[in-house]
Design goal:
With 315 residues, this protein is an alpha/beta fold. The protein contains ten helices and 14 strands.
Length: 315
């Protein structure tokens, strides 16, 4: 069977007004490090991108010096996505910012309708200092609940600005509204770019990063080493596709993101992905060079199930 053409990974960023979506996008754009992203936003002006990063602006599209492109969605998200898909120079990933009062899942469904795109996850941010009060407002509650229920990963942001009582209330509300959905707490939207799909496959030995780590993992922000942990391996044996699919249905708790390029049969390679709550396995074009199989997982420090990962991928 001929492997399918690689689809463009799509990530949707949602959350109520003031939750930190724009800060997150700015952070990812600064930390792109060669990853060519197309970022679709509702209000480009709100991004306030550093002038030194802007290479050129044409209408609603701004090209950055690092290869990323920002586009204002306007009234036609479908048209904006077509422009990204048909770009002369292919992108590595596309990120859509949902407006503060919209349902991220509805936007994700628009992306899913395009066969050239692959929905990799919906990330929803909440303001730790305000969400408990907001969720108690009958005019806002429904919007907040719909946003949270669409999430593959919940980011409780601005944890440093919340009182102990507000943070506890935010945790309780998230846990009751979206039980079982992975959740992380951050300040200043410090979510590592490695949680975004489209990143190259890791080709490193098993490793955990910390404050004294000098290895490059695609998350240059020094704060990430204290909050997140990575694990990687290069499986030497073939892992049948059926075995991988079964494992993806029961991924051990603590894995926020996993990506790999693995041998799944004689001359057969597959790309494995897991983000938040959903996993996928797709046939991949066999590497033409001496590329070795590899898999990398990311989780919160102290919560990444290393032993379970080793048992499955590197017994």
């Amino acid at each position: 069977m001929t492997p399918k053409k690689k689809r463009l990974p799509l990530t949707v960023i949602g959350g109520f007004l003031g939750a930190g979506k724009t800060t997150l996008l700015n952070r990812w754009l600064r930390e792109a490090n060669g990853l060519r992203m197309a970022v679709l936003v509702n209000d480009f002006g709100a991004l306030n991108i550093d002038a030194g990063l802007i290479a050129a602006t044409h209408g609603d599209t701004t090209a950055l010096t690092n290869g990323c492109v920002c586009c204002q969605i306007g009234d036609d998200l479908g048209r904006a996505l077509v422009d990204v898909i048909e770009a002369k120079t292919p992108f590595d990933a596309v990120v859509i910012e949902a407006s503060g009062v919209s349902d991220p899942w509805r936007i994700a469904q628009i992306g899913m309708a395009a066969p050239e795109l692959s929905l990799e996850g919906v990330i929803v941010l909440v303001d730790a200092s305000a969400v408990a009060q907001q969720s108690a407002d009958p005019l806002l509650a429904d919007t907040l609940v719909r946003q949270l229920k669409s999430a593959d990963l919940v980011v409780v942001n601005k944890a440093d600005l919340a009182s102990a009582e507000a943070l506890a209330a935010a945790r309780a509300w998230v846990g009751a509204t979206a039980p079982g959905t992975p959740c992380i707490e951050t300040t200043e939207s410090a979510v590592p770019l490695a949680l975004l799909s489209g990143l190259p496959h890791a080709d490193v030995a098993p490793h955990v990063c910390g404050h004294d780590c000098h290895d490059h993992h695609g998350h240059d922000n020094p704060d990430h080493g204290s909050l997140f942990q990575t694990w990687s391996a290069q499986p030497e044996t073939v892992i049948p596709a059926a075995t991988l699919r079964a494992w993806l249905r029961e991924v051990p708790p603590g894995v926020l993101r996993l990506k790999g390029l693995l041998r799944t049969g004689d001359g057969e390679w597959s790309e494995v992905q897991f983000a938040g709550r959903h996993g996928s396995l797709r046939k991949a074009v066999p590497p033409a060079d001496d590329t070795r199989p590899g898999v990398v997982a990311i989780g919160l420090r102290g919560q990444l199930p290393e032993e379970a990962l080793k048992e499955f991928f590197a017994p």
